[in-house]
Amino acid sequence: MAQLVVRTAGESHGPAVITLIEGLPAGLAVDAARIDADLARRQSGYGRGRRQTIEKDRVEVLAGVRHGRTIPGPVVLVIRNRDARLEECPEVRRPRPGHADLAGALKYLDPDMRNILERASARETAGRVAAGSLAKMLLAEFGTDVLAYVTRIGPVAAVVPTDLAERRRRRDASDLLVPDPGAEPAMKAAIRAAGEAGDTLGGLIECVAMGVPPGLGSHVQWTEKLDGRLARAVMSIQAIKAVEIGLGMAVAERTGSQVHDPIAYDPKARDTAGLGYVRPTNNAGGIEGGMTNGQPVVLVAAMKPIPTLRQPLASVDIKTKQPETAVHERSDVCAVPAASVVVEAAVATELAAAMVEKFGGDSVAQMKAAYEAWRRAAREL
Amino acid sequence: MAQLVVRTAGESHGPAVITLIEGLPAGLAVDAARIDADLARRQSGYGRGRRQTIEKDRVEVLAGVRHGRTIPGPVVLVIRNRDARLEECPEVRRPRPGHADLAGALKYLDPDMRNILERASARETAGRVAAGSLAKMLLAEFGTDVLAYVTRIGPVAAVVPTDLAERRRRRDASDLLVPDPGAEPAMKAAIRAAGEAGDTLGGLIECVAMGVPPGLGSHVQWTEKLDGRLARAVMSIQAIKAVEIGLGMAVAERTGSQVHDPIAYDPKARDTAGLGYVRPTNNAGGIEGGMTNGQPVVLVAAMKPIPTLRQPLASVDIKTKQPETAVHERSDVCAVPAASVVVEAAVATELAAAMVEKFGGDSVAQMKAAYEAWRRAAREL
Amino acid sequence: MAQLVVRTAGESHGPAVITLIEGLPAGLAVDAARIDADLARRQSGYGRGRRQTIEKDRVEVLAGVRHGRTIPGPVVLVIRNRDARLEECPEVRRPRPGHADLAGALKYLDPDMRNILERASARETAGRVAAGSLAKMLLAEFGTDVLAYVTRIGPVAAVVPTDLAERRRRRDASDLLVPDPGAEPAMKAAIRAAGEAGDTLGGLIECVAMGVPPGLGSHVQWTEKLDGRLARAVMSIQAIKAVEIGLGMAVAERTGSQVHDPIAYDPKARDTAGLGYVRPTNNAGGIEGGMTNGQPVVLVAAMKPIPTLRQPLASVDIKTKQPETAVHERSDVCAVPAASVVVEAAVATELAAAMVEKFGGDSVAQMKAAYEAWRRAAREL
Amino acid sequence: MAQLVVRTAGESHGPAVITLIEGLPAGLAVDAARIDADLARRQSGYGRGRRQTIEKDRVEVLAGVRHGRTIPGPVVLVIRNRDARLEECPEVRRPRPGHADLAGALKYLDPDMRNILERASARETAGRVAAGSLAKMLLAEFGTDVLAYVTRIGPVAAVVPTDLAERRRRRDASDLLVPDPGAEPAMKAAIRAAGEAGDTLGGLIECVAMGVPPGLGSHVQWTEKLDGRLARAVMSIQAIKAVEIGLGMAVAERTGSQVHDPIAYDPKARDTAGLGYVRPTNNAGGIEGGMTNGQPVVLVAAMKPIPTLRQPLASVDIKTKQPETAVHERSDVCAVPAASVVVEAAVATELAAAMVEKFGGDSVAQMKAAYEAWRRAAREL
C-alpha cells in the first residue's frame, strides 16, 4: 500500500507504548540505536521530573524487520513502561484543567478519569518519536533531513544562527535543545523560577526540513494538502496550541510584495532539491498550493505550559460537583525540549508519508528508481 | 457510514465546482437558499475583482435530497461556472510566486501550469462553502452555531465585542465581514492604498463555535484529535499560513497558572452545552486533550495577501528558464472576507463530522435520540 | 494521492448518476465515446425492459479533463437520467423481497421506501461502468485488458472458447454478451419462457484480466489482499450472491496436487506479463497470497434473478403490517448481460487501483517510468 | 471514532503476532480466557502438523484494557511465537506453488522469499482470531451470535442439523469442527489417505450469524455494502477461493420466484432481531441491498488444499531459473477446521464493525442506549 500509516497505542502506566507503522518500503535499514537516541532526547531537558529518570526508554522491534532491514509487512515497535502499574493506579475524580480529563469523562460517560488520562498522557509521544525515527531513516535515503529545536521558553527567546549545520550542532550541545548558548542561562533561570513558584512554562519550537523535493503533498483535494497535513500532525501533539508555516501569523500584516518569494533559475543549483529554481526569500516556508516547492519546509509550533501545577488549579469532584483542587500527577516544569523532539518526529512522518505517496513504496529500490526517473524528467521539463 | 466525508472537484474555468458529501444523516432539512446565501457572502467584500461580479453562484442539488430532505446516499452539489471556457484558456508557462504553479509543474511533469492553477484556484472554496452550509444545518439541529469574521486586514486590527449576538449582527452589517464598524473605514483605506500600489493585503480571521457539546473528537489517536483536524481543515484553505486555537501563539510566553482554565460547577448551567461545568476563562479555546470541553471553540487563521499582484513578481519561463514576470490572472486586492466564509465552512464541516462520529448518523431522528440519551447520562455522571 | 478512489452518487429517478474518481494519474487520454460504448453495452441485452430503451446514456465530463486528457484533480462524470421525476415518484410502503426496501426502511426509520430504492437501484451501476471505462483506459497503457461475459443464464450454460481474442469477438457479436453462439438460442428461449411466466432469471458471469503484472495487491494486511478487494468490488454489485476466484468452489473437493499450479521458467516468455514464469494450469485464477502472479486473473460471479417479478411476491404494508403483494417497479426479465458489464468495470477499477498503488500515480509519464524501472529489476532478480 | 479497525502484524517465526484494534467502545468486558479458547480451537483439528502442538497460543493484552474492561484507546493483543527464530531461518529461493512466494519476490524485488512467506503465513490468522473474539464479546452485548463450522473436507460432505443450538453442540464435540458425527469418520479417513499420499485436502466452511439486527451495512455506496465487506473479509483469509452468501452459486440456476424470500409480519416475533418481519425462506442469507434484513446471515467459504505438499510440486530456483522442487516448510494435511475459526472471526469482526458504525461507539453504555432507542423507533415505524 503506497500509504504510510502510523498508529500508536498504550497507556502511561500500562505495560508499554506500542507503535504500528504500515506502508514503509521493504529493504529500509533500521538502526534501533538511532531510535533509542531519539527516545533519549525526548526524555532529556532541564526542568524534567523524576519519571524521565526512571524510564530510560528502549525500543523493541516486534515485527517487520529481519536482518536489520524492513521486510514487507507492518513494523511494530514496543517501548516498555518501567512504571507499569496500571491496575494499581488510583481512581481520578477531580479533572485537571488543561487536560483531557473532564472532556473525556463526559464523552465516555466514565467518572474515573484514570481511564482517560492514561491514554491522553504525553507518554504516548514516545511512540510517535519512534515512528519519526524510522521516517527520518527513509527520508535520509532521499537526502531529506528534518531538524527541530526550541526557540523560546516562557519569556526568553533564542536567536537562531542562519547556518543549518551550526544550528544542529548548537542544538545537540544544549540541555534545552536550544541552538543559542547565549539564551540558555536565562531560560534555565526562568524554569527554575517557575518551578519555585509551583508554576510551569511553555514555549516555541521551530522545525526545518532540508533537501525536500518539490511536489510532495497535493493541491487537488483539501485533505491532501501538505500544509494541512503538517498542521494536523503538529497540532495533535499534546499541548500544542498554534502552528505556523513560513512567516505564519506575520503574513496578516504585510503586503503581497513583502510576502511572496520571487522565482529565479540558477543552473548551478540544478542538482539541489529545488532542481535549479531558487528563491531569495522563503516566506512560504517551502509550501505553495499545498505542495513542497523545493525550498526548506519551515514550521513553528507554540506549546502551552504543562497543565499539571504543583500549585494545583481549581476544579470540582465530578461525582459530588463540589469544589476541589485538581489531582497532581506529575512534576515537570517545562517540557518544550521534549515536545521539540515530537514535533521533529511528526514532521518527518508526514514528509515520509508524502514521499511514499509520490514515489510508491514496495521497496526502497523501486522507490529510488521511481524517484530518480521523476527527478530526471522534472529537471528536463 | 458514521463518517462525514466531503470531497470537492472542478476547475476554475471548467463547467462547475462540484461537492460530494457522504455520511449526512437522512432526514436533514436542506435549504438551498441558505447555501446560496453563504455562496453570496463568499463573493462579497470590498476589494474584490471583476470575476466575483459575473459569477453569482447558485447551487444545484444533483443527488441525495428528496422533498427538501436528505435521503440515504451521497449529496452532490453543483455550482456552475459562468466563465466556463477551460478549453480556450491559454497555456501558462511563467509560474506565479505564492501559487501552486511551480510546485505543481514539477510534481506532475507538466510545463503548462494552466493544468495546475485551474484546480488550485480559490474558486474551489465555493464547493467547501456549500458543504459547510449543510454542516451548519446539521449542527443547528443540536444547538451548535458557527460564526467566523475578519479581525484584521493588513495593518488595521478590529476590536471585537464580547457579546456573540452583537458580533454576528455587526459582521452581517459589514462589507468586510468585520464586527467592528469603527475599524472598517481604515481597512477600506488600506485596501484602496494597496490596490493603487498594485499590491495586495492579507489579514486575520476568527471563528467561534457556540453550543458545542463536550466530547467531540478524541484523545485516543493523533489522527482523531479535534484540534489537529481543525488545523488541517483550516490550514488547507488557500492562502492560510497559521492556525491558532484559543490563546494560540500567546501560550508560549505565559505561565501555566495564567493559561489553564479553572473548572467549576454551576447547577444553573446544567442545560447548556457545558452540562453545568463552567470556566472563568476559555484560553483553551474549547478544546482539551483533542476534545471539545463544552466551552466555545475559538480559532484564529492568518491569511497571506493574494499572490497575484498587478505589479507582477519576478519569475522565469519554465521552458527557457529565462527571467520573466509572473502571469497575472486575477485582480482582487484583498480576499480576507471571502476566506472568512470558507473558514466558517471548514470549521462547521469538521464539527459536524465529529458529531456524526459520536452520535451515529443513519437518520437525524436516530442521531437525536442517541444525543439525548448520551446527554442525560453525561449530566448524571 | 497514490490511491484510486471511486464514489458514485445519484438516485434512479433523480437528475443524474454521478461518479467521482480521485487518484487517476494526470495525462491519461480520456475517450468519452468509449465510456458511452460501455454505457450502451450495459443497457443492451435480450430481455430488458422499457426503461433501457428510453435512457440512452451519455456521459458528461464535469471536472478533471482538459484537452482530452486528465489533469491533476478529481474527475467527475455525470450521466443524466431521462426519466428524472424524483419529486413526483409515489411513496412505496410494500417492501419488495430481494431488494433493499425492508432493511433500508428499518435502518433509516423511514416508512417511505422510495427513499431507499432510488439509491439502491441498479441504475447506480451506470456510474460504476463509467469509472470502469476510465480504469480500462489506464490499464491499457500497461498492456492490461479486462473482459467479462455471460457463461450461464438460468438453466442454460455456455461453452467458452479457449482463445481469448475469439472469446471477445463472440461476446461482442452476442445480444446476451455470451461467447457461445450455440447456447444463445436456448438462453433466449429460457428468458422468453420466464417472462411469459411472470418470472425472472439469473446466471453466471466470468471475468478475465490479461496482461496483469505480478505483484498487484499485497499479502501484508488483510484489507490489502487483492482477492479480498476483488471479492468486495464484485459482491457489492446489485444481485451478486457469490464470487469465485480461479477454480473457486471446486477447490474444496480436489487434492492439493490437483489444485496448485506448478511453476516453470521459459526465457521466451520473458517479455510477457509473467516475466518468464509460466504455469501449465491457472487454477489459482492469477492470484496467490493476495497478489497477482503474472497469470490471467479469472473470477466468476453468480447473479440472482431480478427480484421484481411481474407476478409479485408476498409482502406486507409496513404501516399496517397487513399482507400485500410487493410493489412492481420494473419489468426486466434478465439482467445478467448488463451485470457482466458492471463486473468488468468493477474488476478493472480494482486492478487500476492496485496498479496506481504499486507504481505511484501523479502522471502517466511518471507511472510508466516507475513501471518500466520495476519491470527491468524484476526480470533481472 | 465510530469505526472499528483491525490490523495485524508479525511474522511466522518472528517474536509475535500482534493485533491492533481501534474503535471498540469503552466499557466492554474482556475475557482473555475466551480469546485463548478461540486460539486453541484454531490450533486444534485432526490432520495438523507438529507446529500446532508446540505453539499453545496465549494472548497478552498490551494496551486498551484496565480492570477487565476496555478503556478509550486502541487494544493491542500479542501472541508470542514459541518458535521465534526469524533471524536463523534459512533463505528461500524456490517459490512454492499456491503461496505468495513468487508474486511477492517479483513485487518486492527480493529473491529471498523468506521475507515474503513469513508474513504471508497462516500464522497471521491467530491475530485475526484474537480480534474476532473481542468482536464476539461486543456482539454478545446485542444478542448477536456467530457460529462457523466445517461442512466438507475433500470428497466428504457433512449433513448439518437445522437446529442451531444442536449445530453448535455437535461442532464443539467434533475434532474437525464438523457438526455431523456421521461424516467425521469418512473425513478422517480421507485426511489419512491424503496424508499417506503426501497430498493435502481443502473443504467448505459455513458461517451463520444469529440475532443480527436489520440495517447493518448500507446500500448507499459500494464500499459500504455488507455483503461486499463480508466477501472481502473472508476471501482475504489465506487459501479461501470462493465466498457465497445465502444460496450463493445456486441462484444462477433458479427462477426469481424460487429465490426471493417472501415477507410476512408476525406480531409474536416483534422482539426478535427481525422486529416481527418473518421470512419462510432465507435464500438471501440475511442480506438484501447490502444490508442485514433481520434474518440470520449465512455465508459459505471454499478453502483450497494446503499448498505445501510432502510430495513437493515443480518449481524453479529464482536466481538460476533452473527447475527445482518447491521448498517444504510445513506438514499439515488439512487446515479446514482451523480456517473455520478464522472465518468465524472475520465475519464477527465485520458485523461488529457495522454495529459500531450504526450505533456509535464511545462506550458500551452509549451504544446500548442508541441501539435501544433505534429499536423502539424501528418497531413502531
Please explain how this structure is put together.
Four copies of one chain form a homotetramer. With 381 residues, the first copy, chain A, is α+β, with helices and mostly antiparallel strands. Chain A has a single domain, classed as 4-Layer Sandwich (Chorismate synthase, AroC fold). Helix content of chain A is 33%, strand content 19%. Chain A has eleven helices and 17 strands. In chain A, strands 8-7-9-15-10 form a five-stranded antiparallel β-sheet. In chain A, strands 1-2-6-3 form a four-stranded antiparallel β-sheet, with helices on one face. Chain A has a two-stranded antiparallel sheet with strand order 4-5. In chain A, strand 7 (145-153) and strand 8 (156-157) form a beta hairpin. In chain A, helix 1 (32-43) packs across helix 5 (125-140), helix 5 packs across helix 10 and helix 8 runs antiparallel to helix 10 (336-359). The longest helix of chain A has 24 residues, at 336-359. The two termini of chain A are 29 Å apart. The interface between B and C is large, with 42 and 41 residues.
